[in-house]
Structures are given as C-alpha cells and as structure tokens.
Target: S9 family peptidase
Amino acid sequence: MYCSRVRSIRGMPMKRFLLAWLLVSVSFACMADGAPKITDFLQRAEYERVAISPDGALLAIAHREDENTTVTVLQRSDMNVVAQIGTGSRGEIEALSWLGSDHLVIAFNRASERYHQPIFDPLIYLVDIHAKHPMTLASNFFGTVRGDDRHILVRECKDFSADHECRYSLRRLDINHLVDKGEELGEAPLGDASLMVDHSGQVRFAWAWSNTARSQIYVRGDNGQWSSLNDSDVTHLEVIPVGISADNKTAFLDRERVDGPDVIESYDFASGKRTELLSDKVSDPLATIYSMDGKEPIGAWFGPGVPQARYWTPNSDDAKWHSALVKAFPGSVVSVSSSTADGSTIVVHTYSDRDNGSWYLLDRATHKATLLFHARPWLDAARMAVMEPIEFKARDGLALHGFLTRAQGVSGPAPTVVIVHGGPYFVADDWTFDEETQLLAAHGYSVLHVNFRGSANFGLHFMQLGYRQWGLSMQDDITDATRWAIAQGVADPKRICIYGASYGGYAALMGAAREPGLYRCAIGLAGPYDLSKLYRWGDIHRSDYGMHYLNLVLGEDKAALIADSPISRASSITIPVLLAHGEQDGRVPVQYANAMRSALKKAGRPPDFVTYEWEGHGLADPANKQDFYTRMLTFLANNLGPTSENVGAGKAGSGDAKGMGGN
Model:
C-alpha cells in the first residue's frame, strides 16, 4: 500500500508556480503561430482546487504533477512553499478542505493503470501540515462542521435490512481520539439515505429513492423526531434540500412542479411553513449561490442560456457582494471556493464558455481581486469560441433551447457538427467550457447543441415529454435544430455531420437513417443501436431500479423498439459512418457496435470502426482520446472538406481498427 508523506519544505520559493504563470504568455504566443493541436484541448487542467485556511495564512492548492495530483501548501505572506502532500502514482484529489488552520482533509483515489479512471484504492487523509505523515481516516468519513477544528463526522451502518439497505447514523469523533465511538448525532429513518447536517452538526434531512424511483424526504425537528416532508408516491413530485441558513432556523429546498421548472422554497424548522422564494418560467435552478463565507445558500443561477444570478434577499450584504463579483467578472459564473473564518479574504472561482476555470484571491477590505491562476494556463480565453444561446420552435410548437458555437476563421455558412448529448434524461447541454466544442470550432467547424425534449434543466414536464420518444419526437427536435441552423445561414446545408456519445451515438445513427439528405456523415461513440437489447445487454436491466427506468422511458413493445433502432434501418443509412466503442463498456457493451457494423456491412455501407481495449462507457485514456479525435477530424475533413491544415499529432486510418491506448 502506498503511504503518503508530507514533505516539509518551508521557505522553498514558489518557482514551480511562478514558472507556470510565466508560461501563460509563451503558450498564447505559440498558439498564435498556427491552429491549436488536439492535445491543447484534451490535456488535463493543471490546477484543480484551492482552499484558504481559516486564519488566512495559508493556501492549499491541488495541481497536476505529471500523472499525479499533488497538494501544495503556500504561506500567503511570501508565497513560499510550506509543505507538499503527494498522492503517489496516478493519484487523484477528489476533495480538499481545512479543519482548523493546521489540518487538511484530503479525499483521494488512484486511477487504474489500465482504465485511467479513479476507481482504485480510495483513501481519506487527515493531514497535520507540520507532521511528517498524514493520518488515514476510515472510509465512513462523512464530513466536518465549519468552525469546529477538533471533530470530524463519520457515517456508520446501524441496521442492514432484508432489502439490503443500510440505515445510517452519524457520529462526531474527536480527531485526537479516533478510536473512540464518539457522540451519535442522529439516525436516518429510511434505508440508503443521503443525510444533511446543519451548522452545529445536527442531522436535519434524510432522503432516498426506492427501486421504483419513489422519492422520500424526512426532516428532523428540534426535538430529534423525524417527520415526512415529501413522498413522491403521494405528490408525484420530488423535493431535495439544497442547504440550511447560518442560524439553523431555515432550510432551502428544490421542489419540482407538475407543469413548469423547479422552484426554490424556504422551510421554517419551527413552524414547518414552506414559502416559494425563486422560480423561472423556463429554467430549473442550475446551481446554488452561497454567502461569502460559504455557509448559507443565498440564491441560484438560472438559464436557459448564459446563467443569470438571482437572490431571494437581494439587499442582503452577501447578495450585494456576490452581485458585485458578477459585475466584476462579466460573462462568467462566479462562486466562492473557500474563505477565511471571518470572511475577510475569499477564494473566488470563475468559469465561462471560453475559460475552463480561474481562481482569484479577494480582499474584501480593499475590494481587490488578485489572479491566482487559470486551470489551463496554455489556453487563451480570448481566442476561444463563444457559445451563443439559441431558441427556436419545434415542428409542434414546443420552445427549444440550445447553443451555437461558430467556426473560427470561416465566414458565411460553415461546415457544422451537430452534437447530441447523452442521457438522454437528467442530462443537458449547458453554457460552459466544452473541450469537444472548442476543438471543433478551432478546426473550422460550427457546433450546434440542442436541449431536445427529455433533457434536464427545464422541469419535470419537459423531461417527461421525451419518455418513449427515442427516435421519434426527440429525434425530430434534433432535425428541427439542424434545419434552423441552415435557415439562419449558419450551417452549410451540404456540409453537416451529426455526432454523439451514448444516447447521442444512438441519435446520430438514427439521424443518418431518418434524414439521409440532411447529414453528410455520422459519428457514434458507445451508442445503444438496438433498443430491444437494453433489456438483455449491459447493466441497466440488472437492477429493479434499472428495469423500472427502462419500462418508464422505453416501454416494452419489442416491435416498436426494433423499429425505432438504427440497426433495423441500416439499409437507409447511405452516408459515411464512424463507430467507436470501448471493449470494457459495461453500460452499453461493445456488442452494440459490432452488431451495427455488421448491419451496415450487410447493407453495403461498411463504417469506419475502432474499438479501445481497456475503455468503458466513454474514453478516459489520453492516448485513446488523442486517437479518437484525430480520427474524427480526419473523418470530418474527408466528408465535409478540410478546414484546417492542422488536425494534431497522431495518425488516423480508415476501416476497422483497434485504438492504441491502454497497457
């Protein structure tokens, strides 16, 4: 077992970080000399997390060192390195927070050498930055209570039911006496529940989903008794807690509605009164906005395009401060990453469609924000493409939203790639930095995203409109979006390709089958091309919840499922197709791709085909990503016409192939 070591290197100059900042301008200059390479977009972010100590003296920074993530602790006064905490070979930091000003809690995992996913050897460290070795915490670590630097919270299974569900309780342990049982804070009233504590550490909410997607949430009163707050079998709606006020008197809930987007409500613990605070005619709350000390929810971001910040008490000091930050960083989503105990100094995180993420240190006394670093310092945000929100009507009059990213260096109608998101439910395309989109735009392709019916973020009813509409009205929405882009003069009608992964791969091939004159080519990654096999292949059908899901969103009419599958329409697919799949895909096994390839071969249209030996549902190995996107750009150039002389380093062939990544 790997044993981490805290390297005490107090006084070491911050050369590593200063060099990175210096390289920003060098990287931008290199990009100006020619089109960016594939690796510019696929390379992992260098900086991942930042946390300031409660006393404001130290910064803990999670950053990449070759194939590992390392935590470096800096003294703010002179930016010298105090300590470094290594995670070992292929270590990945999943959480980073301070417990007092001398201890860090670090949750990390180790990526598999073959699968390149953080699924191996998860550990949680309690790090005394002045000691040589960290303390390993038990896997049942739950969290900490802000302001309490002596205790941690752990979760234990008190009762294992006949339904194979754990009834959890929370306990508070002293970090100097971790072998003790500690104090029990509360026990969940239902199995396999998620729990939420207030700012004193008292358990307040428990919620869970059953095998039939029944959603239940319980609230715990001041007397320690649980009572039901919502049961979806009764209300047919879900309610989820999003946070608790700093004084522990009020909770904030996200509640579904029957005929519109979700709303934010307040819940008074003393009276049980619920009051609607925020709602939007189109968009669900996309993310919660917190106070300047990070303790209390004060508002939410709403879409459907560029997120807009809204607050339930706009005149509060925290809302005014956050609003000022939004104005100071226009065109960005702004959040508080961490803060000192007194809230005087704050780490601010921003991101946008052109910036993968940046961190600033805000001094509230001077109102000055100082840039710490960009997540990907080699990418110039000013040279990235803009995601423009779009809105149009589907053929049946339903309002649809999405995003258009215009090809760089192309005037007039451009070759276009329609990217269909996966899911298709509980997932949506949103306004954020997207590597695929930027890669394609940089190589001369416009990119179109549409949130077809069934997508998340538009309320329960909008999602339900997509139930049992695979290949039908959901596909029509994608077609209508494509025709909209043509009518707007954005897309060259003779140079459009459709691409997607998972459900998106299915939709790409269905688009090719249903609209052979609309698309010039199609690309499917990890797609389920035969809907009838979802009840036999893969892992969804292996659980009661999965079977309930399939029955709900697909139905059991086998003839209809086959008719609405690309594999039964292979003879209608007359355009070039590229299929890619991971050979270890447990969700959508590689048999789907093999069967689709055979059907296309039988129809006289053999696809370009590539499999990746150690990949699952998607691509994780950097070498495989490089290979796939090189193939994609070559495939697009061959079928839509070249738009750039530079498709990155690497080789891409045609016909059948096996990816080069893995071990």
Residues 151-279 form one domain. Residues 622-640 form the longest helix (19 residues). Residues 1-33, 644-653 have pLDDT under 50 and may be disordered. The radius of gyration is 26 Å.
